[in-house]
Design brief:
Shape: globular
Strand content: 5-15%
Structural class: alpha+beta
Radius of gyration: 20 Å
Oligomer: single chain
Number of strands: 10
Number of helices: 10
Distance between the termini: 36 Å
Strand order of the largest sheet: 1-3-2
Length: about 260
Amino acid sequence: MFKEKMVTPAIPERVYALCKIVEKGPITASEIKEKMEPDFLGNKSSYFNDYRNAAEELGLISISDDLVSLAVEDKVVKSTDNMRKYINQQLEKFNAGQFYLVTNAFFEKGSDIFKEDKNIANLGPMFSEMTGLQVDAMAMRAWRFWASFLGFGYLQDMFIIPNANVFLKDIILESNIEKNKMYSISEFVDILSPKANIIFSDLSNKKFNYGVSNGLRALQDSGFLKMEHILDQKDIWALYPMKAYSNDSIITNITIL
């Protein structure tokens, strides 16, 4: 799912449900499958291998001698929010995988994404060209589920609106950024980059793309951070310009509140 090709059956909810089952203790794969896909439902299709593989790739579970065990602390699967925060810290490990490269291309596309087909399944050829990987309709549907869950945007009519505020907040909270300390924007980016390169593009020109700009503005609107433009600062970065935020397209400093 994350190492290679994305598949629709490996949705976040199934991965989480599997983790909650093994949280109680090691259990055989066949027992998990029966709990998640009981025979009495009459479902002839089995998705078990897909979401089990996704959970294993992410390091959430381990498998030994057909016994499946939780491979993380219990607090990681205490809630779906906790699982999301954990996964967001792991994504750079999969920087050659389909999910990572499609997400990066999605943010690089910026607001031009709205000029494309609104059926996400039809965007496979475009992302194939952008990433150099074969991306089909199933992969794009799977990407939509995980992109929404991990906080890269918001679903609207089954289309993802680029806004990285949830992902950014997760990364910031797990970084060594101090609260109430003013950082230059370059310092801020340098601290986040090791875990957030998946959403960054055009950094050499000191510009934040559309989805990152939306995320930073949303975090400022919620009171989580404060962006400033201090006139005598030479480290100047640009947010994606928007009419609703006509006075804040240039920033030099940021403070986590």
